[in-house]
Design goal:
- The complex is a heterodimer of chains A (about 500) and B (about 450).
- Chain A has about 500 residues and is of the alpha/beta class.
- Chain A contains 13 helices and 25 strands.
- Chain A has one domain.
- In chain A, a hairpin with a 2-residue loop joins strand 3 (about 135-140) and strand 4 (about 140-145).
- Chain A starts with a helix and ends in a 5-residue tail after the last helix.
- Chain B folds into two domains: about 75-380, no CATH class; about 385-440, no CATH class.
- In chain B, about 25% of the residues lie in helices and about 35% in strands.
- Chain B has a ten-stranded mixed sheet, with helices on one face. In chain B, strands 3, 4, 6, 7, 9, 11, 13, 15, 17 and 19 form a ten-stranded mixed sheet that branches.
- The chains are: A alpha/beta (about 500), B alpha/beta (about 450).
- At the A-B interface, strand 23, strand 24 and strand 25 of A face strand 19 and strand 20 of B.
- Strand 24 (about 410-420) of chain A pairs antiparallel with strand 19 (about 360-365) of chain B.
Amino acid sequence: MPAVKETVDQVKAIDVDQYKYGFETEVEVDKAPKGLNEDIVRLISAKKNEPAWMLEWRLDAFRRWLTMREPTWARVDYPEIDFQDIHYYAAPKKNAAPKTIDDVDPAILDTYKKLGIPLREQEILAGVQQSKVAVDAVFDSVSVATTFKEELKKAGVIFCSISEAMREHPELVQKYIGTVVPVTDNYYATLNSAVFTDGSFVYVPKGVRCPMELSTYFRINEKNTGQFERTLIIVEEGGYVSYLEGCTAPQRDENQLHAAVVELIALDDAEIKDSTVQNWYPGDKDGKGGIYNFVTKRGDCRGKNSKISWTQVETGSAITWKYPSCILRGEGSRGEFYSIAVSNGRQQVDSGTKMIHLGKNTTSRIISKGISAGHSQNTYRGLVSAHRRATGARNFTNCDSLLIGNKCGAHTVPYIESKNGSAIFEHEATTSKISEEQLFYCMQRGLSEEEATALIVNGFVKDVLQQLPMEFAVEAQKLISISLEGSVG
Amino acid sequence: MSDVTPMRTPAESALIAAFPAARKNLPGNSTVIAMRESAFNRFEAKGLPHRRVEEYKYTDLRAAVREALPLAAAPDAKTLASLAGVTDPFAALDADRILIVDGHFVASQSASVIAGVTIHDLGEALSSGQGIEALGTIAKADDAALALNAAFMQGGVVIAIAKNAKPAKPLYVRCVVTGTAPHAVYPRVLISIGEGADVTLIETQQGPDGVAYQVNGVVEIKAGAHSKVQHVRLNAQGNAAIDMSTLGTDLGEHVEFKSLNFVTRPALSRHQVFARFSGEHIKFDVSGAALLKDKQHADSTLYVDHAMPHGESRELFKHVLDGESTGVFQGKIVVQPIAQKTDGRMMSQAILLSDNATMNNKPELEIFADDVACGHGATCGALDEDLLFYLRARGLPKPEAEALMLAAFVGEALEKIENDTVRDVLEAETQNWLLARAVK
């Protein structure tokens, strides 16, 4: 296990409060004034040169949002958010409209380099074909660079920022946006619909297997900004795409808001694989600062035999409120959810999935691994439901929680609702601590307690790590160990 | 969004309007009256629980309870005479019997002298204040059904089992609802079990078919250290009845507590168990079985609070659902930070025999201590085709093969009953249900 060794070394080198991505990039920014009202919504829409229907759509969402109340059912506790104290738009100034990657502010490129995504290098040193990953990078509110565009174009795949898509492919955006997560879906999704600033757009035409992994890196850089991105992925009949998402933010004392919406649409025989490594700043050891991560992710298996797979690695954020779901509408469609949620310090995670079986012979699989350490609270909340017509639906759910230390909590709240006699649902959940015997065995063979814990934890989450694309799996493994740093002993 | 308070339904308004008058006729000294009023205020503030209230998400009482029924009166001689025509499901059981009719204790037909056991009328105890110190302290107080019972309880029985007493026969509490006009019954049974005692408690709830009466009963059991308790409840309410029941337990150290609830008949039933672990090394085992058809609805709700270390809990619930019936299981195991070495296993299994049946499972774990081993499982599905084929290949007709498999499925829960006669009665109930299904 060389990766584990590496992890352990890395952990040792790091101080409790040190968040690897906690640097700040100084670039000039173009910011909207603080606060939220119709004028801000109009300003965002104008900044993006959006068509009139989009502005109407946003305004409609905003008016609806004013009538809604923040949900309180999740097991998370945080001071009231002042939605008027946030900048809803922040864009790096020099980067009015980067034509090529050379036009992007070098400071930003540097930031991404520090994060481990050398955009420039990728373009220049485009190494071996199969290891290539096309990256769309979102800095505060706007997308700054998308790599490998030309090559994707050849395959017919559209991969660009959503603002660009709105200008260049308005018919696609208009047809699909808000059809999976409606404007009225929930408080944060509605807010996002009103003020989303950027995000990624992917369109894979009929019969095309996307030639490379697509990836987006999100970074919140500015103070007092909220990031509201919106991702829309459409895969036509028989298409395939694997999409990766990574997130980071600088360290700050105050809390920052991130409310994203991700919509996936898979038509007949299409497959979408969405992998996320979420590593927003979790706050310091006393729970000061950190990102509030309120995300609505939902996939719609609209076509027959379509498949949507979510793989989530959650190590960051002060608060995570996220339930990537699948609506299994098409006959024979399949939904998968693999998740690792690691919480340490004062983090609070309330996360899980929904598998809604509507079509015949739909299948789903949920593997969730929660690890809580420090003073954190980690909740799995999930729904599996079979509607009357979902004959032959099948689900398997496995939620395991691991507790490290006696100041943290691990909770499981599954809802399993079956309205069809032929639907077969199985659910199992366990909660335990790292077994003394396993620790003893490893330590007897010369590993330190920390190394042994890292090894056992990596074994515990192996089922999920295996689902990640190679590059991500290594990074995720490191992240998990870093997140748990300081929890042993 | 649980703070949504909808408009009052006619049933809620009628219940609220009825309380001031009813209170005057209900037994109780000043302490009890204060308790009734505070419970009533809790109810008045929130109304009947509905699907927006998380604990009642799957059992919407606001929709189910359409009218507020008059409180049942104490049984007169004629009513008592009519009981001769009501079959006692445990007629064959050799037990010390306690009879509660329409929510009132019937001393004349209850055992009076049992070594180590004292039995009192709860109605009298409420008025005198004697022996009811534990009243209302055992079960979780913020529950709506419980609040209604506390406000309206008419009577019941107080049972005290002395230290180290080991009654030779089971104590059998039989609650019967009578009459052809629907009314509401709010019985309460208060049981305190002394240290080291060993007792078997059997409880039956029964009433006439075709009468839409409502029962909201509460049993509170306080078990002293090292005692051993087995409780079996047969819900044989009428086919139009609404039956709400709450079992509250407060357990001392080294207590071995077992309880099983069996349901086949009422239109709507909800059995909730609120368990508190007040001592270490408790062994707690609750189970349930429900066989439902037509439009029946049965809910099993559990709240197990592991508040002390070294506790062990086992939960096993079985639902067999035919027709358009609905089964609900909501179980919550809470492990407090101090409750290290807790071992909890919760299992809910359901078989759906029809395409119109529904099962809602919500097994929850809430864990604050790290050195624990807790797990839960939930399954639902149809009968296994392969097993059916195996049995039919050996010459069993389909209805018999299905009945055999279902009896085995339910049997796993019934096996926990230690008393042979009691287990036989429930097995026979299961067979009757399966037979009726096969004939249809």
